[in-house]
Design goal:
Layout: H1 6-17, H2 23-30, H3 34-46, E1 66-74, H4 79-88, E2 92-97, E3 104-110, H5 116-121, E4 127-133
Antiparallel strand pairs: 1-3, 1-4, 2-3
Length: 152
């Protein structure tokens, strides 16, 4: 793990709060100049510590009233086919390959629960699926601690 100092960590935290913040504004927040923030940010990108910048869309506002978590277990010899079908379905927000009984866990965006069967239908010849509807999100996507914890 690359060691980050407090300034690097604070730059990343500031960008996580608002990726559109100017370098000058971030610099004011953490006590260095905008150009110094820019140089540190370039180094963090070159070192692949910062991989990308993004937008978080409020799914409800754009019409997706539900989210579902889907555990997916491909049938024998169908792993690559199932992976391709998941990748081709734009309603899957993310998908992780996991250990255990299932091979994948993924999150779907749904307008209505009635869509679930239609969206998952393409998988059913190639995999078993187990679905849970998300009632609420206790923790939204966030960064892990970037500086060493006290006991490390």
């Amino acid at each position: 793990m690359k060691k980050l100092d407090h300034l690097d960590a604070n730059i990343i935290y500031a960008l996580a709060r608002n990726a559109r913040a100017s370098l000058a504004n971030i610099g004011k927040q953490i006590g260095i100049s905008g150009p110094a923030v820019g140089e540190r940010l370039r180094r963090l990108e070159d070192a692949q510590v910062v991989d990308s910048f993004g937008v978080i869309v409020n799914l409800k506002v754009v019409g997706y009233s539900l989210e579902a978590l889907v555990r997916i277990k491909p049938r024998s010899g169908q792993l690559r086919k199932v992976e391709s079908l998941i990748a081709d379905q734009p309603r899957f927000l993310w998908c992780d390959r996991i250990t255990g009984e299932d091979c994948f866990v993924a999150k779907l965006a749904l307008v209505d629960v009635s869509e679930l069967d239609d969206i998952l239908f393409t998988l059913h010849d190639f995999a078993e699926t187990h679905t849970s509807i998300v009632k609420s999100s206790v923790i939204r996507p966030r960064l892990p601690p970037l500086l060493p914890l006290n006991n490390e």
